[in-house]
Amino acid sequence: MRGLAHGRKPGPHCDHASHKAQGSTIRRYIIWRNKHAADEYLRRVVASANAA
Q: Residue 14: CB partners within 8 Å, gap ≥ 6?
């Protein structure tokens, strides 16, 4: 399969069709996370989830 650095198909635990799709999802998440970094409600939710 083209586009994969290791030349193999994605593994069974991979939600992405390709390495490019996975990279795109990671980039979108990082952009979202940076935009919401100052969200106090989100910080409280994450803090309570980490405490559990």
A: 22
- Record the tokens describing residue 35, joined without a space: 């935009």
Domain positions in the chain are 19-51
**Is 4:18 a contact under the CB 8 Å cutoff?**
yes
Q: What is the DSSP string of 1-52?
A: -TT-TTSS---TT---SSHHHHHHHHHHHHHHHHHTTT-HHHHHHHHHHHH-
Residue 21 vs residue 5, higher pLDDT: 21
- At 7-29, the pLDDT tens digits run 556 555 667 678 888 889 999 99
